UniProtKB/TrEMBL annotation:
It catalyses: (1,4-alpha-D-galacturonosyl)n+m + H2O = (1,4-alpha-D-galacturonosyl)n + (1,4-alpha-D-galacturonosyl)m. InterPro entries: Glyco_hydro_28 (IPR000743), Glycosyl_hydrlase_28 (IPR050434), PbH1 (IPR006626), Pectin_lyas_fold (IPR012334), Pectin_lyase_fold/virulence (IPR011050). This is endo-polygalacturonase. SUPFAM superfamilies: Pectin lyase-like (SSF51126). Keywords: Cell wall biogenesis/degradation, Disulfide bond, Glycosidase, Hydrolase, Repeat, Signal. PROSITE patterns: POLYGALACTURONASE. The keyword Amino-acid biosynthesis does not apply. The active site is at residue 228. It is an enzyme of class 3 (hydrolase). One of its GO terms (molecular function) is polygalacturonase activity. The gene is LOC108736533. GO terms for cellular component: extracellular region.
């Protein structure tokens, strides 16, 4: 099933590139173009236009761009889009529709100027902060070539979507490293099917990917720096608490708290199954190269993993890299019996000297983390 899904997505990505190359924004008429700083014409544009151009636009304070567009529409973003300051919860851009093409014209930039909101607290208090972009109920669509800078909080959320490919997106929140950026998750996926994220570059201060529920998810050829790693979770206490068929391939995670992470919330229930991390490189990790834990809480891990999550058919293959000396190479904290059918092949995380006590590792996995300085399978 995984191989068939991968081959399908390869073909789908080829089709994407063909569509992107053939698309042009130069033919979009003025009555289908949003520019300036007024949203007054947006409803008319989304109701009547199959091709929409948004360029050199300033979103008014406390407002957002709501793209409830026609099926089959193409939306081009060109030049710079900026946002007025306002302390509020919600998304600066929302998109709904089917068979959509959301295209960033070369040179485009969404400059969110997130430092106006950053206070080191993210979503845990302080200023109310908007998130950047949400796709809701989007099907059979592509998002390609967006350049996003300094998001106030979370960047791109995918909710209740199917067969969507996101490619060649750059998220650059590096200024938040020194100015209080927090909870700047790059990609969040929930309750969705057949989502592919590929050839993206992320600099942020939280998860590069946070997959909290979904099926047939592919995350490949991506570069993640500065955040919390490629994560499943946190999962538990959501409406849907299942991840099935998640494939990570050819990704790099550097200068981050974690490399690969699976985190289930304490005292919750759910299922994580059929997960593969393949050809993943980690570097300069500060917490753990690989961490799988069932005791997660936002305020701090409990140390007591919950027995309510089943985690099965987990594969790590050709996973290499380094962590800092104060870090741990790997940490696994699970209740006994919740994990089954794990495979570790050619896994080597080195450099960490932190002593760890792992629990709940399947006996037939052939894996042990008793040696905290070298993880060798």
């Amino acid at each position: 099933m995984k191989i068939l899904l991968f081959l399908f997505l390869v073909n789908w990505n080829f089709l994407i590139q063909t569509l992107v190359v053939s698309a042009t924004f130069e033919t979009v008429p003025p009555n289908c173009t949003l520019t300036g700083n007024s949203l007054a014409n947006l409803t008319s544009i989304t109701s009547n236009c199959q091709e929409i151009l948004i360029r050199n636009f300033e979103v008014p304070s406390g407002k957002n761009i709501q793209l409830n567009v026609q099926d089959g529409a193409t939306v081009f973003f060109a030049d710079k889009v900026t946002f007025g300051y306002g302390e509020w919860e919600g998304y600066l851009i929302t998109i709904r529709g089917n068979n959509l093409k959301i295209i960033g014209v070369p040179g485009n930039l969404f400059d969110c100027n997130g430092s106006r909101w950053w206070d080191g607290l993210g979503g845990n208090g302080g200023k109310a902060k908007p998130k950047f972009l949400r796709l809701t109920g989007v099907t059979n669509s592509i998002v390609n070539g967006l350049n996003i800078k300094n998001t106030p909080k979370h960047c791109l959320a995918i909710k209740s979507c199917k067969n969507v490919t996101i490619s060649n997106v750059t998220i650059d929140d590096r200024e938040g490293d020194f100015n209080g950026g927090h909870n700047t998750d790059a990609f969040g996926i929930s309750e969705s099917d057949e989502i592919t994220i590929t050839n993206c570059v992320v600099y942020n201060q939280d998860d590069c990917l946070a997959l909290t529920s979904g099926t047939n998810t592919v995350f490949k050829h991506n570069y993640c720096s500065g955040g919390h790693g490629i994560s499943i979770g946190s999962i538990g206490n959501h409406r849907v608490n299942e991840v099935d068929n998640f494939y990570v391939k050819n990704c790099t995670v550097v200068n981050s708290a974690n490399g690969i992470r699976i985190k289930t919330n304490f005292n919750t229930t759910g299922v994580i199954k059929n997960v593969t991390y393949e050809d993943v490189t980690v570097g300069n990790i500060t917490n753990y190269g690989v961490v799988i834990r069932g005791d997660y809480l936002n305020g701090g891990a409990t140390g007591t993993p919950t027995p309510g999550f089943k985690i099965s058919n987990i594969t790590l293959r050709n996973v290499h890299g380094t962590v800092q000396p104060t870090a741990g190479n790997v940490l696994i904290i699970l209740s006994e019996g919740v994990a089954s059918n794990w495979t570790f092949e050619d896994v080597n995380i080195v450099g960490g000297l932190k002593k760890v006590n792992c629990t709940g590792i399947p006996e037939d996995s052939g894996f042990s983390c008793n040696n905290p300085s070298v993880l060798t399978i």
